[in-house]
């Protein structure tokens, strides 16, 4: 194994240090958490983790939510619902992964790579899009 090899968890830790200390009010760290959760999800991953990550990317990619707004939506959802649907995990998780993000220098290029990663992962889960939209409509935007 090469000295330069890093596992996905190692890359996530390094990227998390970057994104959580970013200082941008958009809070890009939330996008990193959600994209990584979906990139690495397997049959052992809890339903809530996949559901929250899908909801997070939906709100960001399709509804232009900031990371802070996504985080607030997660908090609201966590207080309302106790069981979460199981989503089918696609074989291909997108053309862009955490490795591609980490190959970009810190700053604007890495931030853009995070955006592209989110879009790539979200598109890879296209078979789940309608169910995620319905879940958000029912759980976040219903009249109470």
Textual characterization of the structure:
The chain is an all-alpha fold. The protein has one domain. Helices cover 60% and strands 0% of the residues. The chain has 7 helices and no strands. The protein has helices at 8-20, 29-40, 47-61, 67-80, 98-102, 108-124, 129-139. The longest helix has 17 residues, at 108-124. The radius of gyration is 15 Å and the shape is globular.
Order of helices and strands: HHHHHHH
Give me the number of helical elements: 7
Q: Main beta sheet: strand number and arrangement?
A: none
Q: Based on helices, strands and strand pairing, what is the structural class?
A: mainly alpha
Give the fraction of residues assigned to helices.
Answer: 55-70%
Terminal residue distance: 56 Å
Number of domains: 1
InterPro entries: DUF5946
Pfam families: DUF5946 (PF19371)
Please outline what is shown here.
The chain is 60% helix and 0% strand.
List keywords for this structure.
144 residues, mainly alpha, 7 helices, 0% strand, globular
């Amino acid at each position: 194994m090469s000295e330069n090899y890093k596992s996905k968890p190692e890359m996530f830790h390094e990227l998390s240090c970057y994104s959580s200390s970013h200082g941008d009010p958009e809070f890009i760290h939330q996008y990193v958490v959600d994209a990584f959760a979906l990139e690495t999800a397997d049959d052992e991953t809890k339903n809530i983790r996949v559901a929250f990550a899908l909801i997070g990317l939906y709100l960001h990619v399709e509804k232009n939510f900031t990371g802070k707004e996504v985080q607030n939506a997660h908090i609201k959802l966590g207080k309302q619902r106790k069981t979460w649907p199981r989503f089918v995990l696609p074989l291909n998780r997108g053309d862009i992964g955490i490795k591609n993000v980490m190959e970009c220098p810190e700053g604007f290029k890495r931030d853009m790579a995070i955006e592209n990663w989110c879009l790539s992962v979200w598109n890879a889960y296209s078979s789940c899009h309608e169910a995620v939209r319905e879940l958000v409509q029912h759980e976040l935007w219903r009249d109470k």
